[in-house]
Amino acid sequence: MISRAQYTVPLPWFPIDRVRFGSMECQLPASAARVGPLQHVKVRVAAIGDLHVRGQEDLNAIPDLATLSDNADLLLVAGDLTENGRLLEAEVAGELLAAARLPVIAVLGNHDLRSLRRVAFRRVLERSGVEVLDGCATVHRLPNGTRVGIAGTAGSGGGFWPREGPDAIHTRTLKRLALRARRECQALERALLSLDADLRIAMLHFAPTTTTLGCEPLGKYWMLGNCELGAVLDRRVPDLVIHGHAHLGTLRGSTLGGVPVRNVALPVAGRVHLEVLERELEMRLRGHPRASDPVSIVRWP
User: Fold this and answer.
1) In the chain, what is the greatest distance between 2 CA atoms, to the nearest angstrom?
2) Mean of pLDDT values over 202-225
3) List of domains in the chain
């Protein structure tokens, strides 16, 4: 064994007896206090969109809805619950979704936003147990303790040029869409940043990528979504993104950065789509601070 002493160089001229070491502070990272075994987390997410409820609906209109609680932990609805945003339609949609016997979280779509009484429209859905997200986020805790965070907003059109899609004719309508798209993107980013959860899901109505637009005509891309939503998702990297709106689209896609995206519109999926999210998470040991908690300062005299 090599001794460290043989490499020590004496410095007799260094006035060590005159040097006073003050109090030193060091802040330990939260991960240093959270060392623990890995926990396997599994969440079963049911998602659907574009129900377009018009009036009295039959439960058979959505296959497997009545037995959904046996196969899923929560139900996400990606907008267009109703056809014209009428309160009667909202009541029927709420009753229909209540049959799932699951926590239901939804965003509004462009057809829902036709309502002239939007506050009353939301209250009707909330009375049926549907939580509506509009540029905000919620965290649902499963019976096993896993926290699932959902950030939701409707989104907007605007097109995908120059990132993914073709250019569009710049008209006054597109300029107004650009302003709305900016607001929606800011709302989505704030909602994602606010989430403190084990798994994070972003829910939209409009598409954040062209990869789920399928057979939709190129001329309609500007109405179906915008690329700035995808840029926000690539910056904040949720575990899953769901949307609807594109009835001729495809189920599976991804953003340019690789975030998985699902188009769960009923005409596309044909039924409630089930997605299983799994991850290995570090368990939080009792008595240790969480990552978001302040960390104590360690002092050496």
Assistant:
1) 94
2) 95
3) 38-282 (3.60.21.10)
